[in-house]
Every structure is written in structure tokens, then in C-alpha cells.
Amino acid sequence: MKPVVIYTTPICGYCAAAKRLLDSKDVEYTEIDVMTDATKKQEMMQRAGRHTVPQIFIGDNHVGGCDDLYALERSGKLDPMLAA
């Protein structure tokens, strides 16, 4: 499985929803909390080109946010994207 990184904050409902979907698929991911770490927030904004959370990466591919992740799931593209 490709490595998954998700930039989040603890007060974000969309972050929780994205993590629920990944958890339901038994996907291991690295969660980076950007709420109290300005350096990590800058890193996220440079990688994603966006300032909102969540920002999700599968391997080197920027998936986008929660809605984008669920759209991949609905279209059947998420599982192949996660596969190594």
C-alpha cells in the first residue's frame, strides 16, 4: 500500500470524516496536526497549494480534501490508487 499523509486539525469535522473513510479501509496513514505547528502548516501549503484542511496525499499524489477523497471512493478509483 502506498504511504498516506493527511494534514489535519483536531477541530475539523472534514478531517474526522476523511480519517473515518481511511480507517474503514484499514489504511495506515501519517496524520500531521497543523493547528499548533506553523512550520507544518507552511509545509502543507507548499505541498498542496491550499491552506484548508484536510489535505491528503497518497504516495506523491495530492488527492485534495475530504470531498475529493470521497469522490475517489464513489468512482471506484480510491482502492487502485492506494494499492502499491
Automatic annotation (TrEMBL):
Keyword GTP-binding: no
CDD domains (UniProt xref): GRX_GRXb_1_3_like
Ranges where the Glutaredoxin domain occurs: 4-63
Gene Ontology cellular component list: cytoplasm
PROSITE patterns, A to Z: GLUTAREDOXIN_2 (PS51354)
GO biological process: cell redox homeostasis; cellular response to oxidative stress
Keyword Protein biosynthesis: no
Keywords carried by this UniProt record: Cytoplasm, Disulfide bond, Electron transport, Redox-active center, Transport
InterPro entries listed in its UniProt record: Glutaredoxin, Glutaredoxin_subgr, GRX_bact, Thioredoxin-like_sf
GO molecular function: glutathione disulfide oxidoreductase activity
Function comment: Has a glutathione-disulfide oxidoreductase activity in the presence of NADPH and glutathione reductase. Reduces low molecular weight disulfides and proteins.
Record family assignment: Belongs to the glutaredoxin family.
Name of the protein in question: Glutaredoxin
Organism classification: Bacteria, Pseudomonadati, Pseudomonadota, Alphaproteobacteria, Rhodobacterales
